[in-house]
Amino acid sequence: MSRIRVQKVAEQMKKEIADILRTSLKDPRVGFATVTHVEVSGDLQHAKVFVSILGSGEEKEASLAALTKASGFIRGEVARRLHMRVAPELLFRLDDSGDYSARIEDVLRTIRTENAPSDEA
């Protein structure tokens, strides 16, 4: 299948999964989860869904477990909404790039304050 088609399907799946999480999924274990990226295999059989979840490590793991448990429901909804005969198998992964970016920003801020010229001269 063409790379452009796979990218379009991935982007549309990202939008639909985000909408399903916001409107249709009623599991209280799923906290504030944001779909950040979807990678779809070339044959459209598998999709990795990267989600960013706010909360402690335990809350993130509980939310990820709830999403994994609800993957069948989400897969069916995606197939129905995108009019696909066979929806990709969904594999949820935690996206910690936001935490990584915040850590880098903290390190840079610390370096700037340590290297700032003092006014004692």
TrEMBL record:
Stored InterPro entries: KH_dom-like_a/b, RbfA, RbfA_dom_sf, Ribosome-bd_factorA_CS
SUPFAM superfamilies: Ribosome-binding factor A, RbfA
Keywords for this protein: Cytoplasm, Ribosome biogenesis
Entry keyword annotation includes Glycosyltransferase: no
UniProt subcellular location: Cytoplasm
Record Gene3D superfamilies: 3.30.300.20
Quaternary structure and interacting proteins, as annotated: Monomer. Binds 30S ribosomal subunits, but not 50S ribosomal subunits or 70S ribosomes.
HAMAP family given in the database record: RbfA
Function summary: One of several proteins that assist in the late maturation steps of the functional core of the 30S ribosomal subunit. Associates with free 30S ribosomal subunits (but not with 30S subunits that are part of 70S ribosomes or polysomes). Required for efficient processing of 16S rRNA. May interact with the 5'-terminal helix region of 16S rRNA.
The family this protein is said to belong to: Belongs to the RbfA family.
Name of the protein this chain belongs to: Ribosome-binding factor A
Native source species: Alicyclobacillus fodiniaquatilis
